[in-house]
Design a protein that fits this description.
single chain, 450 residues, mainly alpha, 3-stranded mixed beta sheet, 3-stranded antiparallel beta sheet, 8% strand
């Protein structure tokens, strides 16, 4: 390859070879992902490593045999961009936005604390690899959404491998996409830092009487990608009293602000005793809903789901899911016969529970929030397209349809690839809202309404 490069350079014969190189890189990438499509659609690590194998191989070729030629580097980038954004994994997932989603999930796995977390210098290299793939991703807003949700979970549950690396990653994203892309991510860090300070002040003052560890996080509504609870919930008496104390403290500190408790994101630890399999008992790491259910069995040997619902006020679906997880982890067992779980089902604490670990995680996630996240992304895109159209029309005053579509695509393409159908729909919405109007006697021309 190096000899061919030298020969062609003498006769200026690179043009055809560069186009061939681009198509070849694209074909190799497509074939590599085709071979692992069924596994990679649910395996972010396999997906990213397959891309990196192709990328590294041909980057080394460009930097070595092809002497870092800018034309071949551009051909490599074009080839990579095509196979990263359109491949068999996306087809297998039935969505063109699977690439940024898998990259975000891989980033989460790298930055999340685990027993197999690599050394910090290795993590930094992996983040550089992620950012290299990120530069080729066209739907960057999809990555932003999934990454933001994963970051929120890591910060809330304290599962980040390194706060410094979290800051490094946000810095890399800011450098690649600008301040606006990372502004909410940076606010999340600020909220966690302020929450720690306020929690310490609370513990030394109003919270002195609290007999257990209580770590509140006060999160700004506009910065965090969090949903409101889907159910009412009556927390256990001690927790309810503690939450009320903190609410009073916070509202006194910040007049005019109100707290809304997100019970579905709260968690804690319960110590269970009296098990035949362990003299010291177990510490259960549970969600707040699970804690509310389990603490009822300090006073009752068995309860029906109707009784549990009356005490906790959990909605039917949330209660059933909570009971299913407690039964799956064998912390709770069913008293009556039957497979279907309904309000007449009777359950009790499992005194024969066994585990090799003293600390047992029973807070297992239920369900997949990917469809809801994708829906949110589509809604956000529509709003961004509308905002872009308004900015363009405010400046141009009057514009033909084709030109408006072209300029809208150019304005938002750094974040995502807009669909023509979405742009047309946005134009219709803005006409209904009286931001735009069609110009009389002129085909497909719009005018801005001041």
């Amino acid at each position: 390859m190096a000899r061919l490069f030298e020969l062609l350079r003498r006769v200026n014969g690179f043009s055809c070879l560069r186009d061939t190189f681009e198509l070849y890189v694209q074909a190799v990438g497509v074939a590599a992902l085709q071979a692992v499509a069924k596994q990679a659609v649910n395996d972010p690590k396999l997906y990213v490593e397959t891309i990196l194998h192709v990328l590294n191989k041909y980057r080394d070729m460009v930097n070595g045999s092809l002497q870092g030629d800018p034309g071949f580097l551009e051909a490599l980038q074009k080839g990579c961009r095509k196979f990263i954004n359109e491949n068999a994994v996306c087809a297998e997932a039935l969505t063109p936005t699977k690439s940024p989603e898998l990259l975000a999930r891989y980033t989460d796995a790298i930055l999340r604390k685990s027993a197999r977390t690599p050394p910090e210098n290795e993590l930094e290299r992996l983040l550089d690899d992620i950012m290299e793939i990120f530069t080729y991703v066209e739907d960057k807003d999809v990555f932003q959404t999934f990454y933001g949700k994963a970051l929120a979970k890591r910060l809330i549950h304290g599962t980040s491998a390194s706060e410094d690396l979290e800051g490094t990653m946000i810095g890399k994203l800011k450098g690649a996409c600008g301040f606006e892309f990372t502004s909410k991510l940076q606010r999340m860090f600020g909220d966690v830092s302020v929450s720690k300070d306020k929690a310490e002040i609370f513990r030394k003052g109003d919270g002195k009487a609290v007999s257990f560890d209580f770590t509140p996080l006060v999160l700004a509504t506009g910065a965090w990608p969090l949903q409101s609870p889907t159910t009412d919930f009556l927390a256990p008496a001690d927790l309810h009293a503690c939450a009320a104390l903190f609410s009073t403290f916070y509202e006194r500190e910040f007049a005019g602000r109100r707290l809304k408790w997100l019970h579905q994101l709260s968690k804690g630890e319960l110590r269970g005793a009296g098990y035949a399999s362990s003299k010291v008992g177990y510490v259960f790491q549970a969600s707040l809903y699970q804690m509310g259910v389990l603490l009822l069995f300090n006073e009752h040997k068995q309860l029906s789901l109707a009784d549990i619902q009356a005490s906790t006020r959990l909605a039917d679906a949330v209660l059933v899911n909570t009971i299913k997880v407690l039964m799956k982890t064998k912390v709770m067992t069913r008293v009556d016969a039957g497979e279907e779980i309904n309000k007449d089902t009777t359950v009790c604490a499992n005194n024969n529970f066994k585990s090799k670990r003293t600390r047992v995680l029973i807070n297992i996630p239920v369900g997949d929030d990917t469809p809801a996240t994708v829906k949110t992304i589509e809604e956000d895109r529509l709003l961004q397209i509308q905002a872009a159209i308004v900015r363009i029309m405010k400046m141009r005053k009057q514009l033909q349809h084709t030109q408006l579509v072209t300029e809208t695509i150019a304005m938002v393409q750094n974040r995502f690839r807009p669909k023509i159908q979405s742009i047309k729909r946005s134009i219709d919405i803005l006409i209904e809202k009286e931001y735009l109007e069609r110009v009389a006697d002129q085909k497909d021309v719009y005018s801005y309404i001041a």
